[in-house]
Amino acid sequence: MKTPSLGHSFKNGDLLSRALTHSSARTAPGPSGDNQQLEFLGDAILQAALSDLLIKKHPTSHEGELTAMRASLANRHTLADLGQELDLSPFLRVGNDAARDKIHESSGVLADAWEAVLGAIFLDAGYDLARAWVEKVYGDRLAQAKKLADQANPKGQLQELLQARNEPMPIYELVESIGPDHEKIFTIRVLLAEKEIGRGTGRSRKSAESIAAANALSQI
Prior knowledge:
The protein contains ten helices and three strands; from the N terminus they run H-H-H-H-H-H-H-H-H-E-E-E-H. The chain is mainly α. The longest helix is centred in the N-terminal third of the chain and has 22 residues, at 36-57. The protein is globular, with a radius of gyration of 19 Å.
């Protein structure tokens, strides 16, 4: 079986095979026959690895800034780009109908496959090597995370994601504002169908809303 050049040599090749198998081409009954569980695992490992690496790269940044940076690096657009850079599409196994629709070239499937590969690396080699792999494939993005977060539009990204899922629009609600007028600190929560999905704190309502949206994006 031909495999993509990932920069990791698998001891257990079955893990990589599973990571590259879309649900439309499930090779065994149940969820263990495709990459969905590995994607779920990879998402959790990515959150931990990025948190770890961002603290190392940006030691003076506070929690809100780190959350925004992590969200900018872990969104579906970035993960799809990483999947393209690794040239995963030709190696993804999909069902016949999905192949005709070229689903293996879609950004969502590429992002999911990239996370599944990370989950497979974690199971194959452990957290330290998985984190090192994340650091390698992200490259300069980690050092530029603050700039990327500033350029990102997490509120727009959250609205776009919820619209794609036919969900209601998010509502931003002020939780509290503390401090004198010239240096107030605002805490905002974002609600979806009256349920809190993210919270952020900033020196303006706008920045607090952006951080809350970034936090929500990292959770859903």
